Structure formats: structure tokens, C-alpha cells
Amino acid sequence: RFIAYQAHIQIMAAAQPFISGAISKTINMPYEASIEDVKNAYITSWKAMLKANALYRDGSKLSQPLSATGVSLFEMVEKEAEVTMASSVSKAEKIAAQIVQNIAKRRKLPLRRKGYTQKAVIGGHKVYLRTGEYEDGSLGEIFLDMYKEGAAFRSLMNGFAIAISLGLQYGVPLEEFVEAFIFTKFEPNGMVQGHDRIKMVTSVMDFIFRELAISYLDRNDLAHVPPEELIKESSNHDSPENIPKNQGSFERDIIKNKIPGEGQPVLTKTTASSARIQMALIAEAKVKGYVGDACSECGQLTLVRNGSCLKCDTCGTTTGCS
Q1: 99-150 pLDDT tens trace
Q2: CB 211: neighbour CB atoms within 10 A?
Q3: Other Cβ atoms closer than 10 A to 8
Q4: Could you tell me if 189 and 123 are in contact, meaning their C-beta atoms sit under 8 angstroms apart?
Q5: Would you say 197 and 207 are in contact if contact means Cβ atoms under 8 Å apart?
């Protein structure tokens, strides 16, 4: 009932040398043609130096005028749909069963577990973050404690920590929590003291999930201080006398842990290290075209000139201009 596709190609190849353009001829293939047959048809056409190859498989369109099969097009399409649907349903059932099993099963932590406690000061408020780990070192729970806060706020943060812990134990990836809560903005926020890699945050949540991402996901892109900078700091013990004299007053005040207009405390190794890191961040911001000052709203060093005022590229806040 049909001519083999190789015969179509051979006839076209015989005529092609006498035609400047491509031949307007469809290479018809039977309903049973496989992907391998289509591949061979294209390769054969290329070897025969044809300028075009228009393939058509019988039964591939409901509106085709002719059919070489003994069954109707509707029956063929319906049969294909049934086979495809059965295969899809079978796969969906297996995946759904696996998902339900994973969701319904809680992975409990051992009674004696490892972890760490991280203390930090954010905008004058102390924050204590405690983690609990499984035997393989993965994160399973967090605890939060804060001071100088009201009972309502502390209770909300405790409840939030419990919700995150339950999510982790039921299989929610830590990556999802990180993407959902970093850059969340509310007070207290601003400069961070007591952390060697995080120096500025937009909220307590922002600090928590930056810390967890750095410690458990190796997300160095969320840290303000790269790992190699820590190695340099451990081998470099610069004294206050080594501060460059040509440094701006703002940067010199940071290095000396002095807020302009206030008293100057005694310089320690910790504050000196933090000051050098802050200086590096300011220098990097200036190289990128920013003025080097921190935004009063989000705390990022992304202020640019906007007329006679400054505008933050991160949150859009201006220093007075519209």
C-alpha cells in the first residue's frame, strides 16, 4: 500500500542534479515507522545531496486526507492516547506514593546530638543561635534566644524556630528556607558584631539563614568575608599604627572602632579584624562605583549619587531626593 521511504529518496536524488532549488516532494512513511527510520531517512538524504527533506508519518495528523492503515485515524489516536495515559498514570502513582511516604515520615534527631552555638550582636541586640545535627552532620533543628526583647517577640521567634525545625525533620530542604527568608527586613538590623563572616544584615531572620547557609550549604556568596580572607587575617596581625595615613576619616574611624562624634574605646584584635574587613568591603563598593557609605534602611553598601542626594540600588531608599 505504500512506497518505501528509501525509494522516495532515490527518485529525488536522481532528479536533484537537474533542479536548482529543492524538490517539493514529501517522503511518506508508514504508521509503523520508528525514530530510527526517520534518522536513517535524513542521513540517506544528506548522503544523496538533497537540498530538502520533508518527512510525513502516516497517522500523525487527524486532518490528513488519506490513510494507509486499516483502522480509522480516530481509533489510532485513541489507542496511542490510552497507552500514553496508562504509562503516565503508572509513573505518577509511583512518584506520588514515594512523596507521600517521605512527607508522612518524620526523621527524628538522636537524643544526644551535636551542633554549635553562635552569638552575635545585631544593632545592639544579642542573638543566640543554637543548632542540632543528625549523625551525618546535617541540620535538624534550631533554637533562638534574644535579650532586650518583649515576651511577645521572643515567643514568636521561638515558635518560628520550632516551625523551621519541624520542616527540616519532615524533609524540607534547607535551601528552600534560605531562599525564602534571606533579605527579610525588620528591626533590629544593621551592623553585626561577633561573627567572622557576616558583617551586615537586614534582620534577625536574614542573619540566621545566612549563617545556616554558610555553615551547612557552603553558600559563600551570602557571606561578606570570603574564606580566603579569613586565612589572611589569621596570619596577619596588623596594629593600629599600620593604618594608612591617607585613609579617609570615615574609614579610619571604622578601623579604630570609633563612631564619629563619640568616644574611642580600646582597640582589640577582634575589632581590628572586623575593621579591616569592613574597610575591604568599602573599598570593593567604591571600585564598583558606589560611594562606600552604608544605606540607613537595608545596611548595604550600594549607595550611588542621585543628583545632590544618594540612592540605594538594593532597596531604592534615597537620602531626601525623590
Answers
A1: 555 555 888 899 999 999 999 998 888 899 999 999 999 999 999 988 777 7
A2: 24
A3: 22
A4: yes
A5: no
Amino acid, res. 92: A
How many C-beta atoms surround the C-beta of residue 195 within 10 A? 22
Kindly report whether the global pTM for this prediction surpasses the value 0.70. Answer: no
Greatest pairwise CA separation for the chain in angstroms: 99
Q: How many CA atoms lie within 13 A of 207 on its CB side?
A: 31
- pLDDT tens digits for range 38-77: 999 999 999 989 888 888 888 777 555 555 555 555 555 5
CA distance to 86, 281, 290, 306, per residue, from 286 (Å): 61, 9, 5, 16
Q: Which of 102, 93, 226, 227 is nearest to 173 (CA)?
A: 102
Measuring CA to CA, how many Å separate 131 from each of 2, 32, 215?
72, 61, 11
| CA distances from residue 287 to 131, 226, 306, 310 in whole angstroms, order as listed | 37, 17, 18, 17
User: Per the structure block, which three cell numbers stand in for 60?
Assistant: 500523525
